């Protein structure tokens, strides 16, 4: 009974007849396929190169870059809070107690800043940015 030779999807070109591994398989590029002579048993066999590429990504960590570049914030929205949650219920605030915020998001890392602003700044903000 014949031993099976692992010759498909291997890290090196492997002779399907004798199992000889071609040590410089990396020299064959992804465009190549064809016949090759085995240095182990001198038989010809077909070969092809299969290459798999995987990609990984991650967000830029601005804290690591802060001394060099820092965050790049873009104003996303302006908010006016007219209610507050106290003792398990929402209450409407008097107009003098409304809270106004500008929300900025870092274009590099999505870090969010909530910045207190005045009623005047909120009033002078384009409607498209108000929430």
Note the main attributes of this structure:
two-stranded antiparallel sheet; 2 helices; single chain
Task: Summarize, please.
The protein has two helices and seven strands; from the N terminus they run E-E-H-E-E-E-E-E-H. With 131 residues, it is mainly beta.
Name the assembly state.
Answer: single chain
pLDDT < 50 stretches: none
In total, the number of domains comes to: 2
What would the average pLDDT be, to the nearest integer?
83
Radius of gyration: 33 Å
Strand elements, count: 7
* Rough outline: rod-shaped
How far is it from the N-terminal to the C-terminal residue, by CA? 77 Å
Please count the helical segments.
2
Category by helix and strand content: mainly beta
* Strand fraction: 25-35%
Major sheet: arrangement of strands: 3-6-7
What characterizes the major β-sheet? 3 strands, antiparallel
What is the helix fraction of residues, given as a range? under 10%
What's the helix-strand series?
Answer: EEHEEEEEH
